[in-house]
Amino acid sequence: MGMTMSEKILAKASGQANVKAGDIVWVKVDIAMMHDLLGPWLVDGGFQRLGGKLFDKEKVVVVSDHCTPPATVQQADILKFTRDWSRDQELPYYYEFEGPCHQVIVEHGHVRPGRLILGTDSHTCMAGGLGAFATGIGSTEMIGVLLTGETWLKVPETIKVVWDGRLPHGVYAKDMVLKTIKDLGHAGATYQTIEFSGSAISELSMDERLVLSNMAVEAGAKTGLIEPDHKVAEYLRSKGVTEEIDMISSDEDAAYSRVLYYNASELEPQVACPHEVDNVHPVSSVEGKAVDQVYLGSCTNGRISDLRIAAQILKGKKISKNIRCLVVPASQHIWMQANKEGILDILTEAGCIVNMPSCGACGGFTSGVIGAGEVVMSSSNRNFRGRMGSPKGEVYLGSPAAVAATAIEGKITDPRKYLPKEVMV
Ligand SMILES: CC(C)[C@H](C(=O)O)[C@@H](O)C(=O)O
Ligand code: SF4
């Protein structure tokens, strides 16, 4: 019997030739990632009591992103603690104010195919888009990882999600993943890997693939894997990675717990409605719902291709007078690229506010929280009660194109209306 990508990565990490779903394995961790909110200030007590010595500082990456820029004194204190701790531990990889950790660790080349990456954040699974087994762990568990570089994991079963065919104009990876989560349910992949494959997945850019893996956890999955290919290899080379790339793939005869098949050409734009990420409907059934805020950003959909699509839609137009539109590039690097391409000018001329790269508005942590009764159309990944501020607010999730079209009308809008065929991507 062959092995899935998950089984292969966990076999390697546990120093065995073969493992199978259900096995409990001791694994060596390639990258331990923490962010400010669930990082040093939470782990340090236990870490110091148990010796306070990192297993390998080259393999520990810390990113301050949730409390940036700090909106309260407590957040500023957490940020200071994180910065001081990273300096005291002489960490070579501490990033601050650069954007959400998942994007930052991809851009800095920490994410590579075949690696085992554990992070104190549920969307650590995004790194699976490059073929790494990446998953979130709690801060207490992270203490053990920091001290020993090891932990145990149960090898997950894998659900294969096959998307063949060609995506229609105006339909994106976000729509694919929302549809997949609708069908799986928000807990339908609990403790399993989702492996995305098929011709529509191979066609996707790296930016778009990361959307799928990012949201795997929204169906409860441990990680969301995509087989690495030449696009991943080229991306890593462009980031200065010179070592051999592990082009890992699942064996033909690997065992899957479930296989779902989709034809991408039949997909329409999708929207996740309050207050569950699997409450997904075609945009046509929620069109016209008035919103107060539009949010284009996050580690899910704040990348350069997302900002380009929004700029195509908003160029020469104005956002509705009834709303505010927050644009948050997913990293400083993306911010600079968008600036070079004139995208930030287009968006600000349309009336959007461009905020610094951060988790702030996405999770209702710093700037951009919503009040009771307010409705948001967001390009992010979660819409549970209170996600972006008041529990009496409502969050709808859609693609960046749907978000940009909604900004123009002030109500949820089918993006295809604003994407004439010749400029659609
Ligand atoms: C703050 C943190 C617990 C959280 C996560 O783990 O995902 C956040 O990043 C989110 O997106 O909700
Ligand atoms: S989902 Fe939002 S809050 Fe969580 S890491 Fe991504 S940008 Fe930050």
From TrEMBL:
Domain of life from the UniProt record: Bacteria
Binding annotation for [4Fe-4S] cluster: C299, C359, C362
Keyword set, alphabetical order: 4Fe-4S, Amino-acid biosynthesis, Branched-chain amino acid biosynthesis, Iron, Iron-sulfur, Leucine biosynthesis, Lyase, Metal-binding
Enzyme class of the recorded protein, top EC level: lyase
Cofactors (names): [4Fe-4S] cluster
All residue ranges annotated as the Aconitase/3-isopropylmalate dehydratase large subunit alpha/beta/alpha domain in the record: 29-410
InterPro entries reported for this sequence: Acnase/IPM_dHydase_lsu_aba_1/3, Acoase/IPM_deHydtase_lsu_aba, Aconitase_4Fe-4S_BS, Aconitase_4Fe-4S_dom, HAcnase/IPMdehydase_lsu_prok, Homoacnase/IPMdehydase_lsu, IPM_dehydratase_rel_enz, IPMI_cat
Free-text comment on the cofactor: Binds 1 [4Fe-4S] cluster per subunit.
Pathway: Amino-acid biosynthesis; L-leucine biosynthesis; L-leucine from 3-methyl-2-oxobutanoate: step 2/4
SUPFAM superfamilies: Aconitase iron-sulfur domain
Quaternary structure and interacting proteins, as annotated: Heterodimer of LeuC and LeuD.
Function: Catalyzes the isomerization between 2-isopropylmalate and 3-isopropylmalate, via the formation of 2-isopropylmaleate.
Entry's family note: Belongs to the aconitase/IPM isomerase family. LeuC type 2 subfamily.
NCBIfam families: hacA_fam, IPMI_arch, PRK00402.1
Protein name: 3-isopropylmalate dehydratase large subunit
Organism (species): Fictibacillus terranigra
